[in-house]
Sequence to fold (79 residues):
Amino acid sequence: MDVKNIVVIGAGTMGHGIAQTAAVAGYQVTMTDIDAEILDRAQAAVARSVEKLASKGAITEEQKAAALRIQTALDMQPA
Fold:
């Protein structure tokens, strides 16, 4: 089985960290939560994190772009 897509349930500290790690590793990631504000904060935290990592040379620009493409959802319905 070839895994290409990952869904992370919960966009808190651990959830957005897992989503970022998976996206940087090359997976298509969707992050879900029950609150849109939590998803917005999670996306902002990922953006800050990958900007810092890219500026230090810890990740490539492609990896940064992949993390910024993390999709969000308020439910578990397929897109």
